[in-house]
Amino acid sequence: MSNTPLRYRPMAIILHWAIAALLLFQLGLGWHMADMPRSAVMFAAFQFHKSIGMAILLLSLLRVAVRVAWPRPAPVEGPRWQTRLASGVHGLLYLFMIGGPLTGWALVSTASVAVPTLLFHTVPLPHLPINHGWHDGIEAGHSLLAWLGAGLIVLHIGGALKHQLAARREEWVVPRMMPAHVRSVWGAVVLALGVLGIAFALPWVLYRAPSAAAAPFAPAAPAPAASEAPPVEETPVATASAEPDKPLTHDWAIEPGGRLGFSATVNGGPVEGRFGKWTGKVTYDPDHPQAAKLTVTVQLASASSGDQTRDSMLQGPEFFGSSPMGRAVFTASGFKPLGSGKFSADGALAINGVKVPVTLNFDLKIAEDKATVKGSARLDRIALHVGTGQWSATDQIGAEVGLSFSLKAHRL
């Protein structure tokens, strides 16, 4: 008696259908991304594409191990050319399942712009030590594998259905790759094809227009309009009831809970974030606003935009990591009253060894010894050397960056 089983083992069946669904989703996502405009949604889709690719690679390697470790059903009988074709399609499918993710990994590793990868926003994926000169060839190979894989999947499904239609009931082919309790073979076939079709179409549902997309694993807050100041936490300001001839001694302490935020345009879409660590010193007398002094120190490594991959890039050497002291310092002398509790302050921001002029516009409200401040400013990141190398261009990340702040302070 032969030890050849009549159907595949449960582990092989689970891996087969899981990989099949992921492959169809991955192909759909890849082709959908090719038509997507540069936006935060496209960035999210690209990151998710890498995560799914690595999942397919691991599951495929496990599938190979299962295939080698345990016997599988005998090949379907038929003409030699059909047997060889089926064997060739299976072999090329494994090449596609393993080679696709590997070439994708190599493609990311050789890109001129090194974007860090966190698989499913959790596991860091190191770049492969491959020369950047191989990038174009790897890109062509990755694209070729995608088209080859699509054709192989069609051939594989067509061959399985052909054998299913030609076989007698006791020799049916498709049930070998289905759980033993399946009763309606053709019902299961229709269900499987429907699920695979949904997997292929799902990327167009998940990653729609930038304004409405709800992309998984990539939250992005809407950016404020240029005329608005996004809610940013507070920074101290001053109040005082000093006599005209009394020296300025009205120092203010910024209270915990203030917010310092930033906004930028990335791949055509808005991205918002904040700095978690910053301190400020304020001297202000309402009777002498022109003598006010303000110093704010920001710890650049505390930048957060709600996306771990993007944040690790922000803290890299092309962005905030290039600052020798790891901080930015803003100083201003004198507040200019604009009426109705509105002020402006001309100062300078020092970062990356350069200093540029910056004007803060803010609303100041003082009640007794309490002050509330909300305001905004606009910066040119290129002038501040934030984003060097490939990031010095503005096609992916805009040059203008918005700052917003809100804080409360009390007089000392």
Automatic annotation (TrEMBL):
Transmembrane intervals: 12-31, 51-70, 91-120, 140-161, 185-207
SUPFAM superfamilies membership: Transmembrane di-heme cytochromes (SSF81342), YceI-like (SSF101874)
Keywords attached to this entry: Cell membrane, Electron transport, Heme, Iron, Membrane, Metal-binding, Plasmid, Transmembrane, Transmembrane helix, Transport
Location of the Lipid/polyisoprenoid-binding YceI-like domain: 251-410
Localization per Swiss-Prot or TrEMBL: Cell membrane
InterPro entries recorded: Cyt_b561_bac/Ni-Hgenase (IPR011577), Cytochrome_b561_oxidase (IPR052168), Di-haem_cyt_TM (IPR016174), Lipid/polyisoprenoid-bd_YceI (IPR007372), TTHA0802/YceI-like_sf (IPR036761)
Membrane topology category: Multi-pass membrane protein
Listed SMART domains: YceI
Disordered, as annotated region: 221-248
Biased composition (Low complexity): 221-240
Cofactor: heme b
PANTHER family referenced in this protein's UniProt entry, alphabetically: CYTOCHROME B561 (PTHR30529), CYTOCHROME B561 HOMOLOG 2 (PTHR30529:SF1)
UniProt family annotation: Belongs to the cytochrome b561 family.
Record's protein name: YceI family protein
Organism: Novosphingobium humi
